[in-house]
Q: What sequence folds into this?
């Protein structure tokens, strides 16, 4: 099993991961099909992510859930004042997860969670109108977490574990709106850092006040990815003592926060057929004040990019219907508030409020193995927005226009119970 | 189960094609209208300003940022077709004629040995061989150096006439045949829309050469004009009408642009008329003033005390200039100096040197190229004096441009010359506006636009665009031609004029996306 996990990680970490606002909600096909609810649902090893406290309530000795989602996102931009337009490259992000739990005693279950809750891959056409802000970004982070789930009483449990995070970031933009080298090629900087490691933790509880009703709470701490000594490469800078920088690679330091997240929720089993769930998510995005890149040489000014994100909420609703003995159908909806404030709409995370429509099913192939499928459609309203905090000659220059995005998330997974 | 997986995969693939759509999409041509004009075949006719000339050269990046190319990009949103330009071979600029370099590479701003900033030619050898004539037709018919009557001059693209000045090397590169005219090649494309910006060189070549030429007012045969003469106003009006008529034959509309005042360009406004500070003269100042005091006495004796020359010890002073509008007093001056005790040879040299000399004042304009010669020994004059038997030390002292040796005509626009330029510009501009009105064409008053740039500047999203040399944002390093940002401003004015005239809604560009910074790179070391 360990070998398989490793292979899956290697395969998947090589590909990019979607997000705008860079939180990607695709940490379990069963949960995603129900609007990504799960903090109060005892169903499978997906609990390792949504609420580790619930792992101890799983009936089987060993539970494994694994899956991958294809995130197909499109963003279009246009500016009616100038007639300029652009759209992001088609790329398919693949957030994945592997969860396992093992029941040691009746009161104690150990678990493991590997997931990719944060990531982003946006690629605009090189040298497009907003290239002084972003040509492309590729952010990846893998969360690896050993877990303990402990039953205090028959209707109350807690769970927790440290999180090891390993990430990488690649970000490319042009130096400014107009500088080119002697051949007219736009001067560019690309920053790249990989193997950036950090630690965090999560803790959770689950409580069942009456039969068929469960309450859950889960808190995941913030993780600051600190890239130290990454590579910043300047290209296409004119060969002149008057150039602001020189071509070549220098080292840089930067920080990117993966914000803390609090989820509370409730689930209710109406009867043998129907289960309903509601989750409320709060993500503490206000930690993301500014993306600051500190270049090692003193003569290269720091790149300061205010972000000023605000805390945001997600409201999630889901239902499960046992259609056949071997077939569970699921449906859900969620409303996802964007953390991006007006005037801070940077094209690297072109995300406004979205509505998620989800559905899916599980089919029990054998008594021990089930296939989980989910599908989500994210709808963003057309929005006129701008980023107003780009500095040129000490003056703030606006970049804006109309954005329209959508995203499709088909996902497949497997649940094994032994 | 297999089927389920298959359908899921198919569904996923199908979704990749599911793109978000704007309510009114720019890309799908749902936002703008072409009004009464047909932009499908746009042809631009003009001179260097139309070609995208900048930094004293034609090079690919400049051409890419020519105002016609910027316009064509916007016209694409309202049915405009492909826009082909006769691109040069490189980004160095400069031209070759049969392998021999006949034009310098473009200017860049560089740091010289003393640490100060100066425009120099970018290093490299030009690769644009004009005899490698391009095939096909070209929407951008801008030919650097062309005057109004050159557009209808046969043989203007014949390589054999380049060195004699009968032909234009830039047109040689892309003319359809040796005897064609610029206008004929433009009309042959049956433009549905045209722009015409011509006439600047009809005055500018006179102005930028410091008024070396003459006004040809009254001479109706342009074939007899010198290259730096001012065109006769009737010749101008005649060829301009002819050109508009020819372009109108196939076009649904067009736009014409008038001529800027040369005095609004940094080429004429950068060097101050009092460029010599006390520090520039140092300990020579007293000696110079003592020498000039003797000369000033002679001027007073001759009744022209206004020609007195004196350098201030506390403030900047004017340079000594040659003013050909002054009565030549060389002989009289020589005689007076001999009577004053000068030996005959010295008196003769002084007499000739200062017979039409005076000190520059605020009425004069010193051209940009004077900056690099003021205070420098004039080698030609030095050689002349040495040949006359003047000892080298004294010859050197008498040959310092603007200090002892009067600035030559080509570096100074005296008030009389400025008046000739202003009169011709006003006359040509009246003609252009009248013809535009008579034909219902869109009209752009570039003269007022660049006057606004020069007087206070115009605002854009990154600040202010002025005509300050190198840093103002509007003018390239030659001080006459525009930066990409300057050309973008022109393009936006044109778009507004077109929209007003033809009820179209072509969008303007964001001038902040076009460079207004001086070109930099590594230059040819001096």
A:
């Amino acid at each position: 099993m360990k070998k398989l996990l490793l292979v899956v990680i290697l395969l998947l970490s090589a590909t990019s991961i979607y997000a705008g606002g860079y939180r990607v909600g695709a940490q379990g096909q069963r949960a995603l099909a129900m609007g990504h609810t799960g903090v109060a649902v005892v169903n499978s090893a997906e609990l390792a992510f949504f609420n580790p406290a619930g792992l101890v309530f799983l009936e089987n000795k060993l539970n494994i859930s694994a899956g991958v989602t294809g995130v197909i996102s499109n963003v279009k931009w246009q500016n009616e004042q100038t007639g300029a337009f652009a759209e992001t490259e088609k790329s398919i992000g693949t957030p994945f997860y592997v969860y396992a739990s093992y029941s040691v005693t009746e009161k104690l279950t150990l678990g493991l969670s590997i997931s990719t809750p944060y990531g982003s891959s946006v690629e605009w056409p090189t040298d497009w109108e907003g290239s002084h802000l972003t040509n492309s970004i590729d952010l990846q982070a893998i969360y690896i977490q050993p877990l303990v789930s402990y039953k205090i009483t028959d209707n109350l449990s807690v769970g927790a574990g440290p999180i090891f995070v390993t990430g990488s970031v690649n970000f490319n933009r042009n130096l400014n709106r107009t500088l080119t080298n002697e051949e007219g090629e736009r001067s560019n900087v690309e920053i790249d850092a990989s193997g950036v490691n950090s630690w965090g933790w999560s803790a959770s509880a689950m409580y069942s006040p009456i039969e068929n009703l469960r309450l859950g709470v889960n808190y995941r701490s913030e993780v600051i990815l600190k890239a130290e000594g990454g590579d910043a490469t300047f290209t296409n800078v004119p060969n002149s003592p008057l150039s602001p920088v020189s071509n070549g690679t220098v080292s840089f330091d930067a920080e990117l926060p993966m914000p803390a997240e609090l989820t509370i929720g409730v689930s209710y089993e109406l009867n043998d057929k129907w289960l309903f769930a509601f989750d409320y998510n709060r993500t503490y995005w206000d930690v993301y004040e500014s993306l600051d890149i500190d270049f090692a040489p003193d003569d290269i000014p720091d790149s300061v990019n205010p972000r000023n994100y605000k805390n945001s909420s997600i409201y999630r609703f889901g239902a499960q219907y046992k259609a056949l003995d071997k077939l569970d159908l699921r449906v859900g909806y969620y409303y996802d508030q964007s953390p991006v404030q007006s005037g801070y709409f940077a094209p690297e995370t072109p995300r406004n409020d979205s509505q998620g429509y989800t559905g899916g099913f599980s089919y029990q192939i054998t008594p021990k193995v089930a296939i989980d499928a989910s599908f989500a459609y994210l709808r963003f309203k057309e929005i006129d927005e701008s980023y107003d905090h780009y500095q040129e000659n000490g003056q703030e220059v606006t970049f804006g226009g109309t954005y329209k995005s959508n995203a499709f998330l088909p996902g497949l997974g497997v649940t094994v119970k032994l | 189960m297999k089927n389920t997986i298959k359908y899921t995969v198919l569904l996923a693939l199908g979704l990749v094609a599911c793109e978000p759509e704007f309510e009114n999409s720019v890309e799908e041509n749902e936002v703008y209208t072409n009004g009464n004009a047909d932009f499908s075949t746009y042809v631009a006719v003009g001179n260097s300003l139309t070609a995208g000339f900048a930094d004293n050269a034609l090079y690919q990046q400049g051409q890419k940022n020519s105002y016609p190319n910027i316009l064509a990009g916007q016209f694409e949103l309202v049915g405009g077709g492909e826009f082909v330009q006769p691109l040069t071979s490189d980004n160095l600029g400069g031209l070759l004629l049969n392998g021999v370099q006949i034009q310098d590479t473009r200017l860049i701003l560089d740091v010289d040995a003393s640490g100060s900033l100066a425009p120099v030619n970018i290093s490299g050898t030009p690769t644009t061989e004009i005899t490698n004539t391009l095939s096909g037709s070209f929407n951008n018919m801008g030919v650097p150096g062309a005057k109004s009557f050159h557009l209808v001059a046969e043989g203007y693209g014949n390589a054999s006439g380049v060195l004699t000045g009968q032909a234009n090397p830039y047109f040689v590169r892309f003319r359809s045949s040796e005897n064609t005219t610029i206008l004929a090649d433009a009309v042959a494309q049956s433009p549905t829309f045209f722009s015409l910006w011509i006439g600047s060189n009809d005055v500018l070549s006179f102005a930028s050469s410091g008024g070396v030429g003459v006004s040809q007012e009254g001479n109706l045969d342009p074939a007899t004009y010198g290259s730096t003469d001012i065109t006769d106003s009737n010749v101008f009006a005649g060829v301009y009408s002819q050109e508009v008529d020819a372009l109108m034959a196939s076009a649904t509309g067009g736009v014409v642009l008038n001529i800027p005042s040369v005095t609004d360009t940094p080429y004429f406004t950068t060097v101050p008329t009092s460029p010599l500070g006390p520090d520039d003269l140092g300990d020579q100042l007293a000696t110079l003033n003592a020498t000039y005091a003797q000369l000033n006495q002679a001027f007073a004796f001759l009744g022209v005390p206004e020609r007195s020359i004196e350098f201030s010890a506390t403030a900047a002073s004017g340079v000594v200039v040659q003013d050909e509008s002054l009565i030549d007093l060389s002989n009289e001056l020589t005689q007076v100096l001999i009577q004053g005790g000068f030996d005959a040879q010295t008196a003769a040299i002084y007499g000739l040197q200062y017979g039409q000399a005076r000190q520059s004042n605020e009425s004069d304009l010193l051209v940009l190229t004077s900056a690099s010669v003021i205070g420098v020994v004039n080698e030609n004059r030095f050689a002349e004096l040495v040949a006359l038997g003047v000892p080298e030390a004294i010859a050197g002292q008498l040959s310092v441009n603007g200090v002892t040796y009067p600035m030559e005509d080509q570096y100074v626009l005296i008030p009389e010359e400025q008046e000739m330029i202003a009169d011709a510009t006003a006359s040509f501009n009246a003609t252009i506006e009248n013809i535009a009105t008579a034909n219902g064409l869109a009209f752009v008053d570039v003269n007022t636009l660049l006057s606004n740039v020069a007087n206070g500047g115009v605002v854009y999203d990154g600040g202010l665009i002025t005509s300050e040399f190198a840093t103002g944002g509007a003018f390239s390093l030659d001080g006459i031609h525009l930066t990409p940002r300057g050309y973008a401003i022109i393009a936006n004015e044109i778009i507004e004029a077109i929209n007003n005239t033809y009820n179209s809604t072509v969008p303007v560009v964001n001038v902040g996306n076009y460079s207004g910074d001086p070109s930099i790179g590594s230059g040819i070391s001096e």
Q: What stands out?
A: Chain B has a mean pLDDT of 94.
